[in-house]
Amino acid sequence: MDIAHLEQLAKLIRYFILISTSAAQSGHPTSSLSAVELMTALYFGGILKFDLDQPDNPHNDRVIFSKGHASPLMYALYAAAGKVSQAELLTLRQFDSPLEGHPSMRFPYTEATTGSLGQGLGIGVGVALNAKYLDHSPSITYVLLGDSEMAEGANYEAMELAHHYQLNNLVGIIDVNRLGQRGETMAGEDLLWHARKAKAFGWQTFVIEDGHDFNQILSVLEEIRRSTIHGVRPSMIVAGTKKGRGVSLWEDQENWHSKQLNEQQLATALQEVGAFDKNLKGIISSPEKSSPFTTLSADSSHQAQPATPDYSQPTTTKLAAAQGVVKAMSTHDRLVVLDAEVSNSTHFDLAQKAFPDRFFEMFIAEQNMVGVATGLSSRGKIPVVSTFAAFLTRAHDQIRMSQYAETNIKFFGSYAGVSLGKDGFSQMGLEDIALFRSMLNTTVLQPADAVSAYHLAQTAINQPGNVYLRTVREPTPLLYELDETFEVGGSKTLKHSSADKVTVIAAGITVHEALKAYGELLRQGISIRVIDLYSLKPIDHHTLERASIETQALITVEDHFPEGGIGEAVRSALPYCQVPIYSLAVSKTPRSGLPQELLAYEEIDAAAIVKKVKEIVR
Amino acid sequence: MDIAHLEQLAKLIRYFILISTSAAQSGHPTSSLSAVELMTALYFGGILKFDLDQPDNPHNDRVIFSKGHASPLMYALYAAAGKVSQAELLTLRQFDSPLEGHPSMRFPYTEATTGSLGQGLGIGVGVALNAKYLDHSPSITYVLLGDSEMAEGANYEAMELAHHYQLNNLVGIIDVNRLGQRGETMAGEDLLWHARKAKAFGWQTFVIEDGHDFNQILSVLEEIRRSTIHGVRPSMIVAGTKKGRGVSLWEDQENWHSKQLNEQQLATALQEVGAFDKNLKGIISSPEKSSPFTTLSADSSHQAQPATPDYSQPTTTKLAAAQGVVKAMSTHDRLVVLDAEVSNSTHFDLAQKAFPDRFFEMFIAEQNMVGVATGLSSRGKIPVVSTFAAFLTRAHDQIRMSQYAETNIKFFGSYAGVSLGKDGFSQMGLEDIALFRSMLNTTVLQPADAVSAYHLAQTAINQPGNVYLRTVREPTPLLYELDETFEVGGSKTLKHSSADKVTVIAAGITVHEALKAYGELLRQGISIRVIDLYSLKPIDHHTLERASIETQALITVEDHFPEGGIGEAVRSALPYCQVPIYSLAVSKTPRSGLPQELLAYEEIDAAAIVKKVKEIVR
User: Which residues 6+ apart lie within 8 Å of A181 measured at CB?
Assistant: First the structure.
């Protein structure tokens, strides 16, 4: 490799970083400058294999900027490669520009929407897992990490899992520029602190003392490319760099994070960068077309169709939902299941038994599980993420970022609500509907019986984008025949007459309480309407509005906290509602006990519904 | 120490575990049995210093069961110490029993409400930080960890910070029983895998090959007690154990997690435990009364009162809120500030400058930050947790558990909403109101100007329980005089006349948009009411209801996603509302841009309000 050429390219890239952030008067030039040589060597030093004209080529290597605030460097690299013009660079961070403050899907070469730190490595694990086990591609995944973000625990979840799955095709690069946004990181310039940790997690670890020396960088990157082909361990590069490298005002200085140069300072800085040819172009090697590549479908869709389950006995929605996913796996060869070490409770061990090649154990590390799902989704897979509803809160930030990555993830949260019983509050998902309803372009479903769970699980797979499906631990009697159909955005009116005084709207376990209340009230001569609102987002406006016109009041009943749940979903669906909307929801600290005791304590059981109806109707 | 006595006690404790979980026909006996010797040695082997009659004595050592599902062991230990009767043990997991499935505050000796795995070590860091730096107590904090939960990244955040703060008074004990709930952990029985990681994080590390051998256990615990007094490093014990130890049906066997014995199996198991004296009592040593102990107030409340800030120029709510906290710190000596490496953005560096002894840098590790806050709160401190609103989602599970721990944490989320501008969606808190509104007993506040931010920050400190205060990056003009008062549950009606056609309800940045719309509409001859709804939970029902009676419609305007936010809070406050409630909220994927461009794009600016009002009034 021609080092002099790389040095010229590094000047061009520094120039791009400085002019774009100065034009924006915003952004993170100092964090970008520290990694210029690391990324220039990777992209243009013959290491990276990427076909710029076919970004979706599964043979392409992948580069994830986990330190997403170094986006000016990312854009500069693609500018040096000829894919972004200088004029475009000057639109950095403007409203109409795809060059956002942190990488977004509006820029065509973004591999991962980052910016919330400590998420890139988990996404990288997903991408590398996909290449190794699903696409069987020689693609290597590189993740650029900041030293400050190594304080985030999600990195260690990712490291552990990458070791477990022997992801020799995953390379982390920690840009140790010593400085976080407000001062030194915990480790300062101690490269060995980072290296010791990576080594203890079983990674092949390389230290580059001077992360601005192309010879040192290339020597390590080339060694990894040689060794990764045959090894079983992921690689971590720990590189010593200087924040703001190349600009004397900034270099290795505190208090310049996310700050810009004025016009005169920019002129000085550009002088310091030195002379170079602005028409220089960096060449990224393309992947070899002949490299082995088998599609997923060749491997794992030869299974027989699973038999239709028998739901004649009371069955849990969690079991039926898992069975629905297994059914869908037999026809969707891109469907992959991730489990956070609870598959024997959630019944997703059925997926493991039926399709072992498409089941991945994520252990108890929910953040990384969602990161992996995001990575898998970015490579065209449909990941199912399964754990207890309560523990999806652990990955809220990763779920939040996935909405912006336009992923196609199916979240299955089981053991929701106080009906979980004896295990107590720590295991009860009571804020999960609020969490998922607040996500853009996300579908939220909650089946009330085994048949609807079985069908809605399959609907979730087919529905584009992120979907949340909520199930419970308690077995429930059947409400529907197996040939019933369930549309996203629909509902089922289970009890209905022209004499209905009040409408009770429920979902999941509370549908059964509503039906018990219906029976009791009927005995007392009061007729109520009962709606199974299995689709919480989108919601069945029409049926709700009709109920609000035809009955005197609406009562929502949910095994969830009041805020952001079914009550508020119904209220938001009916901005013009002329009748009162009452909400029965979990509003006291729950505890261990029997499901029925807890439903009664929280006043979301049949007795509470009966009481409320009689207050209204009396 | 009399090992034979400890062995007898271990039999008693095994007996208690078996009879309680058999009576409950629920719970985690196998996970409890593996740690019997570890905990018996700690509690009754002369190691732990704890005054059972004064649980709040600051000299007491603390034991946190991070593997909260081992609660049957915890209750058995206090039974062996004479503080729980056998009859009480048999109420395990019953609705009225304080012996819940996972430790809750209803049991008087619970140090931390756990059950969501991987949270105990962070809480332990908070407790140890408190003892070392605030209470100046010789108290040692022990955290019992499961090997499965070591997959959670939050543990590594905690390890890193404990090393950074040289918490020689913190001892982790990993109970390596090899088996998770569905099979082997990633590390299996490899003790050195766990030990290498702890060592790489700078912990003094001890391996106990046989975690059922009292001699081995005591030797390590005693060595730590000797060394911790003089050292600067936290200690990690890695102990090899057998899941289900002492019951041949279970011991080291898979598929018995959370499963129970039938009557005959119980009889056999109790025979295996062997004979012992049921009247045996374990003695826990008390702390020495003479140990040094200085209260916090002696150290750090001698500061002069900060001057009242000057808000004559447009000021950000984030700055004023930080100034309000600094003001409160001068009178509340138990107020402590935690920062996730953004103090120069959030202005909480002011707290660091004014009260360096009560400011702790948590680096970029939000989960651990909330864990530390939970630990500090459990020891009577008032922790302020500060980062960007968006990144509080990272700690959602820890926040969720804190509501059950009855903590007194003040969450300050800054840089909320799309008004953040050029940095783009990754930094924008748009689901934070939904997150905090869904928490029990939690107050949610959002000031619209510097004066209200300054006052509400102080109100947040004085308000019992968890509080969330939301601020933004954009400077805003003043709305209030400095002597204005702001009650929790109140609101301010900024514009009001008998001619009001529509009421616009806003909070934070959107209040200013509502006021601009007011001016524009007034010029067009349309009068609107404008309410600054700074208290989102609890909410000012009275003012909202009055507006719904006196005007034709309500419009909520929020820089937040529609679900769980201000719109839904207002709708839930008005179940009988007879006029339409419209909601303007963020509903498109945001991006980088100028604040005003983004407010316009999301249709939450003055123009969007004017348009909506005119649709209604026309």
Answer: A148, A257, A258, B341, B342, B344, B345
